[in-house]
Amino acid sequence: MNAQPVLTFSDNAPTPGQSYTLRYGPFLNEGAAGAAQTWDLSALTTDSMVTITLANPATTANAASFPTANVAETGSEAVMYWRTAADGVYLAGSAADDVLIPYSDEGRYLPYPCAFNDTWTDDVAATFSIDGTNVVRNGTIVGEADGYGTLIMPTWTANNVLRVHWHEETTDSLDLFTLDAVYDSYLYFVEGQSYPIVQLVHAEVTFFGQTEVVQHAQWVNELSTGVGTHASENLSLDVFPNPADGHLNIVIPATLQGAVRIHIADAQGRMVSELRDAPLSGGRGQVDISALPAGIYLLSATDARGASASQRFIVE
Question: Which one, of 161, 201, 199, lies nearest residue 183 by Cα?
Fold first, then answer.
């Protein structure tokens, strides 16, 4: 029996350091909306694959153009810059083929918390340049968590899945013409994973009266919250008490080797504390958080090899 899942900042917000294989294939029908659904997407097939990495924007070439972003999604044709916050995930912009699109009005693509029957609407706006021509983009996102239930994949099944329906319409205005785009997507999420299992995309672009329609599916073949072979490390970092006040006890995974660097970021992804060569005994230690105001934070531990583990905590 399926419970009604709820997506939250602490369990689902994208975090730098994650990586996963994204498969592309033909579009499939999304199935019905509603409670306790069974969505059969077992016919998904793979045409191509890319490795997507969620990175610190500061490590990317165009970070200065997206100052509000705290997560950069790299690996596909465009680098997508996102701002994650306690109330949701916002698109800060994108960079592809030397075209930088920073959003002056960041659209909220997913609210936190997000549960069945939740709806939201948000405007988007950007001004950018293509080959010396100025472009003004305006649009609206309409979202709805329109169903939950069981998702049947080609080789496995996921329970307690929340489906999110995005509908976005944008108009790009240039000197002599406009370009209208409509994106309609269904995304299937589970608690504890920041990226969807499946996204079914239907896009229509209209230019000089001609409309081009493109459809595809993109999906992952497993549930994971970690980076490749380090998936278990990301799951095993422990912090307590949680909520905390004054000091936070931490237990570092045994697979992290040598000197460990610890840093703490706030809900906007800004680093608020860093401790190099953390003093640990048997993988255990204590961090002073007495200077942190009340809120939600992410503690990350990284060893010299780049292996990392992270956990969110709350300061009362």
Answer: 201
